[in-house]
Amino acid sequence: MNRNLRHALLLTFAVSLGAAPAFAQKKSDSATFATVNGKAIPKVRADALIAGQAAQGQPDSPELRKAVTEELVRREILTQESIKKGFDKKPEIQGQVDLARQGVLIGAYLNDWVRTHPVTEDQIKAEYEAIKSKLGSKEYKARHILVEKEDEAKAIIAKLKKGEKFEDLAKDSKDPGSKERGGDLGWANPASFVPPFSAAMTKLEKGKFTETPVKSDFGWHVIQLEDTRELKLPGIEEARAQISQQLQQRNVQKHIDELRAKAKVE
Length: 266
Prior knowledge:
Blueprint: H1 3-16, E1 32-36, E2 39-42, H2 43-55, H3 62-84, H4 91-116, H5 121-135, E3 138-147, H6 150-161, H7 166-169, E4 184-188, H8 195-203, E5 214-216, E6 219-230, H9 236-262
Antiparallel strand pairs: 1-2, 3-4, 3-6, 5-6
């Protein structure tokens, strides 16, 4: 069997546990696809594998069907051997099987819910405008030094006023992500930072540093603003797919939360 195709088939099985197609079956679906040691393999399993491959852009072909046959036979042989060993009777294995079954059913339900509750064009436009409003029109290039105590931040500010370099003082910062770069945070939008940090940073003039320590949940900051530039956002057409996906995920989570709120749990 083609190694890449076999890998794709195994991946299809893994994905199907979380997102399966609808469960409606025709009478022909119950037909036997193959028999292994007298045990029938239902045709629906082959149909599911082929459908999964089709969803990933794999065209139906004699090679694919041969690969599907071989994969299903291998799985049936291993399943039979597992049953001989009594694994199907073990509580922990039964629990895993139950979870896998739940995953398939959940995937089918949520796929159907998403299909019947599509994200609208108006929702995409509204979300795009909300993102633009939140991000504003500027990006900021800043440095910072993070310390645990306010007195430490005040001491750093005093050293800066005496002419010591920000980059040198940043070596003692508690932020491992920026201390080795002289406190450099790169270009970022204010929305990327916690509110107290953003509020202080956006008030600075280029080249200036905060003369009062800035408190956040992480500790005390001393911030220096190096530069600003116009924020260039992708157009709505470029962002459409990502926004649609985010809205879809948000809608699904809201639906799950609503079902959870109505559920009677004892």
